[in-house]
Amino acid sequence: MEKLVIFGGNTLKGCVDISGAKNAAVAILPAAIMASEGICNIDNIPDIEDVHCLERIIESLGCKISREKNSARIDSTNMNSVCACTEDVRNMRGSYYLIGALLGRFKEARVELPGGCNIGARPVDQHIKGFEALGAKVVIEHGVVKAEAEKLIGANIFFDIVSVGATINVMMAATLAEGTTILENVAREPHVVDVANFLNSMGANIKGAGTDVIRITGVDKLVGCNYSVIPDQIEAGTYMIAAAACGGEVAIKNVIPKHLESISAKLIEMGADIIEGEDSVVVKSSGRLKAANIKTLPYPGFPTDVQQPMSTLLSVSEGRSVINESIFENRYKHLDELKKMGAEFKVEGRIAIIDGVNKLTGAIVKATDLRAGAAMIIAGLIAEGVTEVHNVESIDRGYPKIEDKFRGLGADIKRITE
Ligand code: EPZ
User: Fold this and answer.
1) For site-directed labelling of 158, which of 286, 288, 349, 412 has its Cα 20 to 30 A away?
2) Which helix (H) or strand (E) holds 147?
């Protein structure tokens, strides 16, 4: 068991390098198994547990993977299984992308239902609706999604809700369908665009990713390619908020500032200074920020994944803030932990009302999920005294070397193995 021990109160100064995007990488790795010829060389892969988990799953399907620093070489030419049913599959969310990848390449997939952060019901009905529209027969039996088709045929699919996972999963299967598929009401997140770019580098014909209509003309096969994963918008947002909360001046490097606009705009509204460079943003904050209202929305709106770190900052900002979590119905568990540190709030359904306090005080808390963990670390960094954050495994699923990166900015944080 590991925990993070934080002595709060230091301002943050210096530079932090942002890693490759988790939510792109966890889709690109499964997409790589669609190459029936050639090797995929993928760079800028984040060193996180969700990626390690996927690598083990992909190897169990008969692919060869070699890793060097942040790069992976994936040879899926001799894959020999369409069945992904292991503990790793059950433990993470991104494993569901194997359904689209296997169905596209082999017209058959057996994949256990995914796990991941417990932040709401997280159904997969829209994924299944898409696969069925392409001609697959899909059943869920004993916790396993079984999908098969004699052949996949392009279709017009209008998603009932905007879903990152369903958009990517159905897009993957449709790349190897016969004819044209049009996906409407799709997610526009940067990682959706990144996966489409990766598939196009493999020989797919996908147009429109980044808008709300994606048009896919099916091709016969996908082949290996060289690719580099985009920077992680959510990791960058987390360090931006930490810098704003702790005060000081932090340069967040290797980012695409455009992807961060909703976060930058909110921090500016609250009183922080943001200077955008070509591939960096500098966050400066010298005192207590003002309260703000936030509604989480699909991209380009304010990301739900940044809501939890942001609520820590709001808990010490001056005045009353209202958060409307419109994406996931159960993404406020971290507030109960924050309460142990002195935060004042009220939750009514999807609305959280936060009354900013003058200070938080160190306490023993846990990371109830991945981004909740980041929220608790930021709370520890600003709190008076010592904070222990337990359940660090949740944080390691999605933040590479988080304590090293914060220490590099002047934070007093260490990992202790008990
Ligand atoms: C992805 O989850 C991310 N996970 C999440 O990252 C992120 O919070 C979320 O997108 C929203 O941006 C991965 O990429 C692995 P959705 P996903 O499908 O795809 C409902 C993080 O912290 N829905 O866009 O599962 C769903 O319940 C995390 O990195 C259906 O009703 O999210 C939710 O209310 C956690 N039916 C909404 O849509 C479906 O078939 C959006 O979910 C699919 C989704």
Assistant:
1) 349
2) strand 144-148
Same domain, 90 and 193: yes
Task: Supply the range of the domain harboring residue 295.
Answer: 2-17+289-417
Residue 336 lies in a domain: yes
Whether residue 206 is found in the same domain as residue 334: no
List the structure tokens of 274.
């943001």
Ligand 1 atom at minimum distance from 94 CA: 15
For the question of whether the overall pTM of this predicted structure is more than 0.85, the answer is: yes
**SS3 assignment for 80-146:** CCCEECCHHHHHCCHHHHHHHHHHHHHCEEEEECCCCCCCCCCCCHHHHHHHHHCCCEEEEECCEEE
Pocket flag, ligand 1, residue 369 (CB < 6 Å): no
Site of tokens 């990766």: 198
Q: Which of 40, 53, 63, 117 is catalytic?
A: 117
Let me know if residue 195 belongs to a domain: yes
CATH number for position 402: 3.65.10.10
Same domain, 114 and 8: no
Same domain? For 219 and 300 the reply is no
Whether 269 maps to a domain, the answer reads no
122, 131, 160: residue to mutate for ligand 1 pocket, most atoms within 8 A of CB: 122
**117 counts as catalytic:** yes
pLDDT tens track for 281-332:
999 998 799 999 999 999 999 999 999 999 999 999 999 999 999 999 889 9
Our count of domains for the chain comes to 2
String of DSSP letters for 66-78: EEETTEEEEE-TT
For the Cβ of 125 lying below 6 angstroms from any atom of ligand 1, the answer is yes
Q: Give per-residue pLDDT as tens, 364-417.
A: 999 999 999 999 999 999 999 999 999 999 999 999 999 999 999 999 999 999
325 alpha carbon – ligand 1 mean position (Å): 13
